[in-house]
Amino acid sequence: MTAPTPAPDRRRILSGIQPTADSFHLGNYLGAVSRWVPMQDSADAFYMIADLHAITVEQDPAVLRHRTRVAAAQLLAVGLDPAKCTLFVQSQVPEHAELAWILGCLTGFGEAGRMTQFKDKSSKVGAERASVGLFTYPVLQAADILLYRANAVPVGEDQRQHLELTRVLAQRFNARYGPTLTVPEPEMVKGIAKIFDLQNPTAKMSKSADSQAGVIDLLEDPKSLRKKVRSAVTDSGHEVAIDPENKPGVTNLLVIYSALTGRSMEDIAAQYGDSGYGGLKVDLAEVVVEWATPIQERTRAYLEDPAALDSVLAAGARRAREVAAATMADVRERTGFLVGTSLMGTA
Ligand code: TRP
Asked: Confidence band (pLDDT; 50, 70, 90) for 1?
């Protein structure tokens, strides 16, 4: 099995998502996953389901395995094509953990302790219960990226600090051991529709919100989708207008409407104008259902045949491993490990 040879000017990109929910939500979709689809044509794209990252907090094994398949099925359902990109599961490429160890030995304890995501997540459970894996989460993420010598990493703003650490670690490795790793460009995806919670429109839509009433799941049934959209919190007044300051609720609905239909927010705002929020919500509910339904059908079809799904992922992992193994061979040699002896086949 050989990797498709990218044209020399074709950038390599890598991105990942954790399989920690029963469904992606609208924020995941508009903020990340939907952006991955066009990039499989313009770049040599590696997309990863980050199950090693998922276990930084406790996971039930059967649930994790199921969610990994659900994540893969949804990614295929929204349009990732295994013939165009490399879609794989992180734990199926053991080089991730191996490089993470080496990079961890190049990371300062204080440096890792300054990562804000760790500080947020660990403060929720307390230092005794936060895992060491949660602490080294950004180091594993750096390994994900550096293994593939990715030129760019399309992620949202919340991942900026992790990307910066990745660059620092690549530069540090190269300075200490000689040029080996590619320093990726930070590429915060611009114009990304940032989606807010429908019940709390100043907070990011998030699966870790206390209530899921304002979180739109891709795999949610139509009845519940309609209910959530129709009961979205809106602002005082009744004029439909783009005003993130004073009308965060309505503006969020316009952002979603625009992102799912391709129509401009101005156009949509003009259509509803002073006819009140009700009509906007009713119509948006239908837009959301029409968006979700075909994706749900395709997701279900992929999940009906887990063996076929697993073999798509196995092919992705084989392709990913070829690249990862080549990087690791260089890294091992540079680091000073014994190389050139194969342990396999000597028994
Ligand atoms: N930390 C990312 C997130 O929570 C997921 C992720 C893991 C990732 N490894 C990655 C993203 C490598 C980009 C590149 O969204």
From this structure: very low
For the chain, the average pLDDT equals 93
Q: Is 155 in the pocket of ligand 1 (CB under 6 A)?
A: yes
Sheet arrangement for strand 185-188: 86-89, 44-49, 12-17, 152-155, 185-188
Q: Is the pTM of this model over 0.90?
A: yes
Q: How far is the CA of 18 from the centre of ligand 1 (A)?
A: 7
d(CA 233, CA 217): 17
Active-site residues: which are they? 121, 204, 207
**Cα of 53 vs its chain's centroid, Å:** 11
